[in-house]
Design a protein that fits this description.
- The complex is a heterodimer of chains A (115) and B (111).
- Chain A is mainly β and 115 residues long.
- Chain A is built from no helices and eleven strands.
- Helices cover 0% and strands 56% of the residues of chain A.
- In chain A, strands 2, 4, 5, 6, 9, 10 and 11 form a seven-stranded mixed beta sheet that branches. A four-stranded antiparallel beta sheet of chain A has the order 1-3-8-7, with no helix packed on it.
- The N and C termini of chain A lie far apart (31 Å).
- The model of chain B has no long low-confidence stretch (mean pLDDT 95).
- Chain B is globular, with a radius of gyration of 13 Å.
- With 111 residues, chain B is mainly beta.
- Helix content of chain B is 0%, strand content 58%.
- In chain B, strands 2, 4, 5, 9, 10 and 11 form a six-stranded mixed beta sheet that branches. A five-stranded antiparallel beta sheet of chain B has the order 1-3-8-7-6, with no helix packed on it.
- In chain B, a hairpin with a 4-residue loop joins strand 7 and strand 8.
- Classes of the chains: A mainly beta (115), B mainly beta (111).
- Chains A and B meet through strand 10 of A and strand 4, strand 5, strand 9 and strand 10 of B.
Chain lengths: 115, 111
């Protein structure tokens, strides 16, 4: 257990559905991250939040909408997704962002399938 | 643009063998390099982190080396066990503090 939990662990949704992924960290960290791991591409950074402010949006389509209501919780709201968005979505947290001094701790991921 | 490559993509060895996983990166301007383990359907577990000023790190049967100038790192696993079967990911922290990942090496250790 890394101290980062994600729910749900598996999600199947149609292209017209709206769903949300949830991440919670119990480590007292100030930075949280969303990553996408597709079958055919390396793990890639989507968003970075520091002290509840978005500090990085890595050219992610607007059908992915992150929300960070407090430093312990991070959401990824999904709407009108495409089949190519099927992937493992990983959340991570670290003490701070924008520094090499702190490791990132990863959650177990949500396996998303878009039909 | 930083790119991370891992070779081989997959590896199958009998139990007890020593093995080496390779990672290369295109831009030597990194803050650190990290090796992770990922079990099927699960998140990432950090194994070793090497700061850019360091040459190697050791943890139990694992030893990771870093040659920043040549853009290479190796992960050495001694006396492999079936429980070592997993995907091993290499990641570098680039000059903008982003983690850039390789595609991983899928390891199978046969009993």
């Amino acid at each position: 257990e890394t101290g980062v939990t994600q729910t749900p662990r598996h999600l199947v949704m149609g292209m017209t559905n709206k769903k949300s992924l949830k991440c919670e960290q119990h480590l007292g960290h100030n930075a949280m991250y969303w990553y996408k791991q597709s079958a055919k591409k390396p793990l890639e950074l989507m968003f970075v939040y520091s002290l509840e402010e978005r500090v990085e949006n890595n050219s992610v389509p607007s059908r992915f909408s992150p929300e960070c209501p407090n430093s312990s919780h991070l959401f990824l709201h999904l709407h009108t997704l495409q089949p190519e968005d099927s992937a493992l979505y990983l959340c991570a947290s670290s003490q701070e962002s924008g520094t090499a001094s702190y490791e990132q701790y990863f959650g177990p991921g949500t396996r998303l399938t878009v039909t | 643009k930083q790119e991370v490559t891992q070779i081989p993509a997959a590896l199958s060895v009998p139990e007890g063998e020593n093995l080496v996983l390779n990672c290369s990166f295109t831009d030597s301007a990194i803050y650190n390099l990290q090796w992770f383990r990922q079990d099927p359907g699960k998140g990432l577990t950090s194994l070793l982190l090497i700061q850019s000023s360091q040459r190697e790190q050791t943890s139990g049967r694992l030893n990771a080396s870093l040659d920043k100038s040549s853009g290479r790192s190796t992960l050495y696993i001694a006396a492999s066990q079936p429980g070592d079967s997993a995907t091993y990911l290499c990641a570098v922290m680039d000059s903008s503090y982003k983690l850039i990942f390789g595609s991983g090496t899928r390891l199978l250790v046969r009993p």
